[in-house]
Amino acid sequence: xxxxxxxxxxAQGGLLHAAPGAAGQPxxxxxxxxxxxxxxxxxxxxxxxxxxARGGDAPTAAEPVRPRADAxxxxxxxxxxxxxxxxxxxxxxxxxxxxxxDGERLRFVGAATRRIARGIDLDEIVMGLCRASxxxxxxxxxxxxxxxxxxxxxxxxxxxxxxxRRTDRIPEPHMLTGQYTLSGALLPATPLPDGSVRxxxxxxxxxxxxxxxVLRGVRPLFGGSKAARAALPELLGADAVPPLAGVDGRxxxxxxxxxxxxxxxxxxxxRAPERVPFGPDDLLVAAQLATHSALGVDKAVLYGRxxxxxxxxxxxMLPERLPNATGVRLASRYLPxxxxxxxxxxxxxxxxxxxxxxxxxxxxxxxxSMTSAAIMGQxxxxxxxxAGLDLPPTEVxxxxxxxxxxxxxxxxxxxVYVVYDPVSHRITVANAGHPPPLLLHMDGRAEVxxxxxxxxxxVGGVDFEAVELNAPSGATLLLYTDGLVESRLRDVxxxxxxxxxxxxxxxxxxxxxxxxxxxxxxxxxxxxxxxxDRDDDIALLAAxxxxxxxxDVAFWFLxxxxxxxxxxxxxxxxxxxxxxxxxxxxxxxxxxxxxxTNAVRYATRPVTLRLLRTDVLRVxxxxxxxxxxxxxxxxxxxxxxxxxxxxxxxxxxxxxxRLGNGKVVWFELDA
Length: 671
Fold this sequence. Notes:
Helices cover 30% and strands 21% of the residues. It is α+β, with helices and mostly antiparallel strands. A hairpin with a 4-residue loop joins strand 12 (413-421) and strand 13. The longest helix is centred in the middle third of the chain and has 38 residues, at 280-317. The radius of gyration is 37 Å and the shape is elongated. The relative contact order is 0.07.
């Protein structure tokens, strides 16, 4: 989206159009506002004092400056005209005068380019050019940039279009009335509703046209030159630019903005009729301003692209959304270390497991760079693959440790891996050098879980331990990275104690009978950080345990024999009648019959059948055969091969997951 041109902060209108004085005489000259040599001043940010241009900042129009004591007196009946930093020399300037003018010009260019170089984003660069130019070098400026701006090595496609990015002018108090102008021959004659006058908002550069030739030539030109006279109407709009005949051609400079690879825009510098016209040396100044601004725009565009890539990389590395796991509600937060380092090695994940369980993972790779993010992505993918195999938490950490060593000898990370079973209301926790999880009980009591700390991933040659703990309904488990609890101002354990107190304080607000809302709890947890108390990434994963009550679970062992099929149908029918789900009896019996038939055909140990009633009806059949079944298209003459096809067509969802000692086939129906 293109930013609308905006006037100087102290201006109430835009660039004003010329209005002749009484009886056709020129209007009274405005008072001096440009700084005389060596005395350019501007207001320091956040204060009212001014600084000399030689101190490093370019002068701006934010504060009028007093004329020099040796300035020429104003003409009778009027005020002195604005004076440039390169005030007009005498007809025969002395060597001392020339040196003084050259010194002032160098000081201005140095201060202006420093101001432009301070900007990081596109708006700061363009504003730096405007504020450095007005009022010291010009009375008004129009900055056009290519739309869209090309990035790096990419080749622009389509026609060259220039869009007006910003305008600025001298905020003369008497000019706010709209009675005086900067240069009526170069600005639109029709004022906008706010009383301002600006150039054309957009122009398409015609290939081989006058403007294209000027932009190709790169060098700034006086407005009165033949090429500029033909190019300016094309840039500012034919209807907005009156004929230039009779106008002093040195009151405007057209300067192309050329980046590292190509022309990216143009700037128009204007001086009012009552001010000293531009001189030949001003073309060199305009070239310097244009060059530094164009390179700054290139830098800003590249920085913006890098920031976008970093954001996209981090977004793709983290879960797009958390799964709807059975018996648990989830919430998460991720904060980068800083705006200048938007990617890092922190991650979180929630992975559904067979048996309605869910794996909760939070990890932290050293550093917060693109390399850390790449390593994090590989470890996260490995953790997801291992979780899909339903390996124990200690085995998952062991394989992550091996993967980190394969990535490099200095690839270190911490990780905590938790498996929650909503049926047994238990969690299994394994830790690899990560800060311990916190558990907020329903009564508002917060505790730090006592889990073995373990060694970080990547150390190699260490064993990981796992502990099994109760996960009561209504309790909230909090997994986090050390960026939440550790900073330059406090150590890890001090931060953990503060986090525990924050959880208890938040729980007291909702009372002992109600757990705090999960999203609000995550926001409250982040408040434990001070305004400048963060220098690392933060990943946060909160899990509210709801569990599945025993009355909603039905579980049986079935012998691996043909008679188990009829028994499975009968048991499923009895469970559905008990739960008041008679409408699903026919469908469930048919699907259970097909799945159990496949299981007992190849199993050597008892087959398991489990029904779970939550927001959906879930049926699970487990056996000791690791091969996963696949849907196939049965021919009309085949006697079998249609079981899983029926499951696919009649069930809401279905899948088969390999376990450490077999597999489980499950399907779901609306409860």
